[in-house]
Amino acid sequence: MNIILAKTAGFCFGVKRAVDMAYQYQNTLNTYTFGPIIHNDTVINNLIEKGIQPIDQLEDKEINTLIIRSHGVTPQVYQTAKSKDIKIVDATCPYVKKIHRLVEEYFHKSYKIIIIGNKMHPEVEGINGWAHHECLIVKDLEELKLLNLEKKDTQYLLVAQTTYKKEVVEEVVLYLKNEGYHYKYINTICNATKERQEEAVEIAQKVECMFVIGSSYSSNTLKLYEVCKQYCKESYCIAQADELNLETIKSYSTIGITAGASTPSSIIEEVIQKLLRMNA
Ligand code: SF4
């Protein structure tokens, strides 16, 4: 069996930075992360063992240090923490932070902000907060069309969730351009995501079966899976090695592996080792 492992599989820069920052505060009294620090249960459970629990509100708890998750939060979280004299460790990915700054700036210039993304995702909820929760949030062109946007007097700023599929965003940009809307588009898709998706496509075209390793609630993992499925019908999203169906896999001679941005290298290694053992 030939296994092709994507070079871009696993922790991206922003996730690695956030996890490293969190571990610096292990076993420090009353330290919490706001929301899960990243979308990976193994990492979150390990941090809990080291005394760092995720919380989603600042009331009812004695908090000395609050670590802000990589996906970022609304300005209200900073304000509340400040008013309670809580030390903030800001592990927001700098690429997400850049969107916060843009959205805040253009909101104050009276632009209407459009976010292309998943409205339930914490990153998008956080971004929305920097424009007083007044952003228009759409998942694709179809949803955007349903908004019947005002054309004459409104300036729009268009940004996207960092992990969004670039084709979906490009379709929206083209539509706004062709329909004559007044808009400014700033590309906020993270390069780490783009490179990971491009490499996944390249590998998926060459293999009989493709594994995307990551949590089912990680947006970039699911997008990666969708991209792979387009090019390799036998694509599977798994969270860890024990989800491998060895009977099915035996029939493949070439297997590709990639992993979401919040998948630790230890989990990727376990999957590879299990495949190799099976093949021995
Ligand atoms: S995928 Fe990009 S934006 Fe998201 S945490 Fe990683 S580096 Fe930051």
Question: How would you portray this structure in words?
Answer:
With 280 residues, the chain is an alpha/beta fold. It folds into three domains: 2-10 and 191-279, Cobalt-precorrin-4 Transmethylase, domain 1 (3-Layer(aba) Sandwich), CATH 3.40.1010.20; 13-93, Rossmann fold, CATH 3.40.50; 95-185, Cobalt-precorrin-4 Transmethylase, domain 1. It is 42% helix and 19% strand. It contains eleven helices and twelve strands. The protein has a four-stranded parallel β-sheet, with helices on both faces. A four-stranded parallel β-sheet has the order 3-2-4-5, sandwiched between helices. Strands 7-6-8-9 form a four-stranded parallel β-sheet, with helices on both faces. Helix 4 (94-108) runs parallel beside helix 5 (122-129) and helix 8 packs parallel to helix 9 (219-231). The longest helix has 15 residues, at 94-108. The model has no long low-confidence stretch (mean pLDDT 94).
**Overall number of structural domains:** 3
CATH topology of the largest domain: Cobalt-precorrin-4 Transmethylase, domain 1
Helix and strand sequence: EHEHEEHEHEHEHEHEHEHEHEH
**Sheet with most strands: strand arrangement:** 1-12-10-11
Q: Radius of gyration from the CA trace?
A: 20 Å
Average pLDDT works out at 94
Q: Which CATH architecture of the largest domain would you pick?
A: 3-Layer(aba) Sandwich
CATH class of the largest domain: Alpha Beta
Distance between the termini: 9 Å
- Residue stretches low in confidence (pLDDT < 50, at least 5 long) are none
Biggest β-sheet strands, sense, barrel: 4 strands, parallel
Shape category: flat
CATH superfamily of the largest domain: 4-hydroxy-3-methylbut-2-enyl diphosphate reductase, catalytic domain
Overall SS class: alpha/beta
Number of strands: 12
Question: What is the percentage of strand-forming residues?
Answer: 15-25%
